Structures are given as structure tokens and as C-alpha cells.
């Protein structure tokens, strides 16, 4: 992790994201004075479950994996954050600690924005507050979908849903599966690594996917989607 200073070539003065374009001059200055630009290297933690949360992260670029840490070093992957996403929204108003951990899948650039500044802007600017709450609700909806996937689907349905979800990142990140181990894929599906490997081979045998090195190439979207629903 490296803090980017104003004298560095890759320093970014303003946040260009659409949600910040609704801010007035005073609010822009408030956010600018409350942010720190940080470069996270691949493998760095952006947040740590249970750690003190004094900031919200805005991801400028890169991919970040969100996960929960359970007992006996058990991990459960929840989602992938990408450019334009907020990380740590759940701690912005309700808690003083992070509810989950995140780790950089690639080199990432992010703004760390003091959550007191975010809270003040939300109180002052209704449109920004609406956009901020909308993003939080979208993340919550995604979390509920993940929970339903684990609670109500069999292993093949979980893995099919996971592959479709991860494949959705391929348009912008063709190497997405190269960034993930088979254990990572298994942790997204809530199954063991051994079961994930066996099911991947079974899906390949049935002509649903092609395994090429670490890559997973989806061949039959309709069938995989059917399994994800039926599973």
C-alpha cells in the first residue's frame, strides 16, 4: 500500500465519478480535503473484518474481492468490487468497524474518504444522499442474492450461478479467472475446493464450459443458467 502525494505523477485531484458531480463547490472542497489517494498492490487488504473503520473507500480502478472470515480460517467470498464502487458503505453510519474483509485482486487505486465527511455531504445534499443510499441498497440486494444461493441451492446450482457471475466481469477483465484460484471459485459457491474441481470437470464433460489453464470459458449460457435456477 502506498499513499499517493500531490507531487506524484498519478495523483488525482478531483473525483470524476458521476455521483460526485452533484456536489456544490463547498461540498467538493470538503470531500477533497477529507480524501487520501492510495495505491494498493495485488494481495493488499483494503479493509479487514472487525478493524476500526474511519473511512469509506471509492475504487478508482482495479478489482477487489469481498469476503467474510469465519471460524477455523474458513472464508466465504461475497462479491467483486470494480471501478466506481464504494467499499465499506456498511460502516459509514451504523458501525465503527468493518463487517467484512477485502483484498486487491489486481493493483488498485482508491480514495479513502473520511466517513464524517461523507455523512455531512449526505445530510446536506439530497441528490448525493439518494445516490449513496441507492448504491448501499444495491449492495444489500446482492448480498441477499448470495445468501439465497447458498441456502437454497444444491452444489451444482451454486457453482453454475458463481460461474455466470464471474463471467460477467470478462468483458472488462478478460483474465478474471486467472486472478482466482479454484479455492476462490469454491468459496464464492460455498462449497469445498474438491467439490468445485469435480463439478467443473463435470460441466466441461457436459459441454457447458471449457477449462483452459486457469480460465473458464462458458460455452452454453442457457443451460448453465437453467442449472443455476433449478439447483
Describe the fold and architecture:
Helix 4 (155-167) crosses helix 5 (182-189) and helix 4 (155-167) packs across helix 7. The protein is 39% helix and 23% strand. The protein contains seven helices and eleven strands. The chain is of the alpha+beta class. The relative contact order is 0.13. It starts with a strand and ends with a helix. It has helices at residues 25-33, 115-124, 126-152, 155-167, 182-189, 193-205, 221-230; strands at residues 2-4, 35-40, 45-47, 55-61, 64-69, 75-81, 86-87, 101-104, 108-114, 209-212, 215-218. Strand 10 and strand 11 form a beta hairpin. The protein is elongated.
Salient structural properties:
four-stranded antiparallel beta sheet, five-stranded antiparallel beta sheet, 39% helix, 231 residues
Which strands sit side by side, in order, in the main sheet?
Answer: 1-2-9-4-7
| Mean pLDDT across all amino acids | 90
Secondary-structure element string: EHEEEEEEEEHHHHHEEH
Radius of gyration: 19 Å
Question: Brief overview, please?
Answer:
The chain is of the alpha+beta class. The protein has helices at residues 25-33, 115-124, 126-152, 155-167, 182-189, 193-205, 221-230; strands at residues 2-4, 35-40, 45-47, 55-61, 64-69, 75-81, 86-87, 101-104, 108-114, 209-212, 215-218.
